[in-house]
Automatic annotation (TrEMBL):
Domain Peptidase M4 C-terminal: 195-364
Cofactor(s) recorded in Swiss-Prot or TrEMBL: Zn(2+)
Coiled coil, from the record: none
Name assigned to this protein: Neutral metalloproteinase
Keyword flag DNA-binding: no
UniProt-annotated stretches for the region Disordered: 35-109
Chief location: secreted
The species this protein was found in: Streptomyces iconiensis
InterPro entries linked: Metalloprotease_M4, Peptidase_M4, Peptidase_M4/M1_CTD_sf, Peptidase_M4_C_domain, Peptidase_M4_domain
Higher taxonomy: Bacteria, Bacillati, Actinomycetota, Actinomycetes, Kitasatosporales
Length: 367
């Protein structure tokens, strides 16, 4: 293995203004909101209205600043998570009542315990695999609120903390159930403090894809799965039994996660041939993310073994390199992954060649 670049570029981070990134795309909720059954349409409309107001109130992109905070100088054994879970009790006031904090006894509420465990699993992957000390690389406390709103059918990162709805019980279950949902939303925070990708168009799709990638890796790491053992699904177990679908998204086969009378059909493309041009969903950030998602899946399965070890390392190096502009498109990101693979593993290495092949498979030219 070649030595790392001797002078890596410092990563950059934004002023920590709040952002709003939710796991369930607006187009999914929009389909449900038009259902004839009010038990389905009412919670979906309420969730859509809530999310739209949050996006209006919050800045979605933030200003680039100087170097990201360096990891605090402390022995590895002292770098521990600082988790706090709150209960909103079906209200929309944050953070809510504190119900569990670091090293306290488990709650009688399984939702609280799942949120607590998910925060810990995310912290563990970033620290153990990538030597990243929490979301900001400086020990940021991890806060989460559960039981948010009435029949709130989403989970989101607001720039400061995680928030989980209980779902409507008809289409969506409790949003703390899939651990990759927790990892996905917290990774929006990592992106906020590193690449700071604008949440629109291709840069927004990359923002969403990075969250899917690392959300999946967090699940795989916890299960000890190799790339060929993983299901590569995002949000598996979130749908109730009445839904014809297995997850919100599939990285292995974008466009196949669900096909349901109420939800509609999964619109994600796997390649640039089917790229979706739309003005909704911030330019299709949850739709076209299927393309870089599939590129990562191709890379991970080409390299084999544990996806977090080489494929994940290349993606993490890219996200934290400081080489990406905030409006980076797919081609720019692909070039950056090529450079990251060369810097870590060498030009012409198996890893570098696999990166080039993976982007070729989805129709993105590296250059």
């Amino acid at each position: 293995m070649n030595a790392h670049l001797s002078h890596p570029r410092p990563s950059v981070h934004p002023v920590p203004h709040p952002v709003f990134c939710a796991i369930v795309p607006p187009h999914v909720l929009d389909h449900v909101s038009r259902a004839e059954d009010s038990a389905l349409s009412r919670p979906a409309r309420r969730t859509l209205e809530h999310d739209a107001s949050q996006r209006t109130r919050r800045r979605i992109t933030t200003v680039r600043m100087g170097p990201a905070p360096e990891a605090l100088e402390a022995p590895a054994e002292e770098k521990k998570p600082r988790r706090t879970v709150y209960d909103a009790k079906q209200k929309e006031t944050l953070p809510g009542k504190k119900v569990r904090e670091e090293q306290s006894k488990p709650s009688k509420d399984a939702t609280v315990n799942r949120a607590y465990a998910g925060l810990g699993a995310t912290f563990e992957l970033y620290l153990s695999v990538f030597s990243r000390y929490s979301i900001d690389n400086a020990g940021l406390p991890l806060d989460a609120t559960v039981h948010y709103g009435e029949e709130y059918a989403n989970a989101f990162w607001n720039g400061e903390q995680m928030v989980f709805g209980d779902g409507d019980g008809e289409i969506f279950r409790d949003f703390t159930l899939p651990i990759d949902v927790i990892g996905h939303e917290l990774t929006h925070g990592v992106t906020q403090y590193t690449a700071n990708l604008e949440y629109f168009g291709q840069s927004g799709a990359l923002n969403e894809s990075l969250s899917d990638v690392f959300g999946s890796l967090i699940k795989q790491y916890g299960l000890g799965q190799t790339s060929d053992q993983a299901d590569w699904l995002i949000g598996a177990g979130l749908f109730t039994e009445r839904v014809e679908g297995e997850a919100l998204r599939s990285m292995k086969a974008p466009g196949t996660a669900y096909d349901d009378d109420v939800l509609g059909k999964d619109p994600q493309p796997a390649t640039m041939d089917d790229y979706v041009h739309t003005g909704t969903d911030n330019g299709g950030v949850h739709i076209n993310s299927g393309i870089p998602n599939h590129a990562f899946y191709q890379l991970a399965t080409e390299l084999g073994g544990h996806a977090w070890e080489r494929a994940g390392q290349i993606w993490y190096d890219t996200m934290t390199s400081g080489s990406l502009t905030t409006d980076a498109d797919f081609a720019a990101f692909a070039r950056a992954t090529s450079e990251a693979a060369t810097g870590r593993y060498g030009d012409g290495s198996a890893e570098h060649e696999a990166v080039l092949k993976s982007w070729g498979e989805v129709g993105v030219r590296v250059g």
